[in-house]
Amino acid sequence: MTVFRSAPRYTYLVASVAALGGLLFGYDIGVISGAELQLVKAFHMSSGSEELAVAAVLIGSVLGAVFAGKLADRISRRYALLVMAIVYGLGAVLTAISPGYWWFFAFRLVTGVAVGASSMIVPVFIAELAPRQVRGALVILQQLAIAFGILVSYLFDFLYTKLGWGWRPMFATAVVAAVALAVGMLRLDHSPRWLAMRGRWDEARAVTAKVDPGASDDEIDAIRDSIEAEQTSSWRDLLRPGLRGALVAGVGLAVFQQFIGPNTVLFYGPTIFSYVGGSSASSALVSTIYVGLTLFLFVFAAIALVDLIGRKALFYIGLSGMTAMLVALGFIFRAGATHYGVLLLVALIIYIACYSASISPLFWLMSAEVFPTRLRGVGASWASVANWSANLLVTVTYLTMIADIGKSWTFWTYAIVGVLALIFVRFFVPETKARPLEDIEDYWVGGQRWPEHSGAGSR
Questions:
Q1: Domains of the chain and any CATH numbers
Q2: Percentage of residues in the chain with pLDDT exceeding 70?
Q3: Distance between CA atoms of residues 163 and 151, nearest Å
């Protein structure tokens, strides 16, 4: 893709190393899917304790997202990710040696802290180092890494199940990526915006010259203006008229990304496929691998299109496809899924493809773009908290909804959310394609209009 040839090689090194945090994110939320059936037997779980075990990492993610913004501002995005790499590694080892259910829950919660914190810090770190013309594609590299991590977790789940090694190696394997992330962070630079926040302007200028030589001076001037404005800023600014729109957009996308139901498939995939009478746990895992492969491949579509057709067009295409497939899934279950196993798999694959090419990566990108530079850390943190809280709510209610209102109405409920998400994007989400990050505040306080000097794009 020609978009990837328009920035120095170091820029992609930074994005690739930082995106290892996304790989760990994906692996640790995906691995539970294949381990779930074994854990139910090992710890004699009820449906309620099963939901809680799956949700443990999400509870930790909410906690991690709460302090991630302040941590990233205080010790730097770079060192915050280094700390999270250590937490990821410890969480993986401790989870793998859990002697009982509550130990497992506690250690998964620890891992979740790293997941929640890195989910906010990684896109901010990449966005602050990326040239504007490829910023969208580079930030979405995190989503590619998340999808790859989920796929890898499904593959290892299947491998360890076939080998009869049980669930413990499934969780321990994450140590490899955690070590790689820690080593990589030791070799990278701090983001220029964080350096500028600390008054280290010479270092900030040197870093911008490495990642975007042609626009280094303009970038430094823009950062200087935003830092000066930050001196009189407070998180309460996000609640005042004008900037409140940024908070609504960020938090709204966070909630819709989860309430449209993708993690019911990613976390409970084998359970869903068991509804059609899969012959074994391994056959259900094979179907889950198809879903994971789709999730991974369609991130490339998002990378290719996000800076070409824009964010909002991808939202419209992806959310429309997801909503249609949710309606179809409801009818498949109403007609009797045991007779339409192939259609069920096809509908789920299309649903995940649309998710992977749209709201899945776009939420994380927009959480790094819709907030003013001076409020980006706290704003992205709030959006992450909302995202993980919504994720937790969906995860701990899915099996209950299936029992209470049935499979069809469960998926139709998510479809209704899909329609609401389309309306929300139309009226509350800006088009940020090719816009300087420093101009986003002018957009919000200027009545949701971009300043004339800010470049191509539309509302």
A1: 2-188+233-454 (1.20.1250.20)
A2: 90
A3: 18
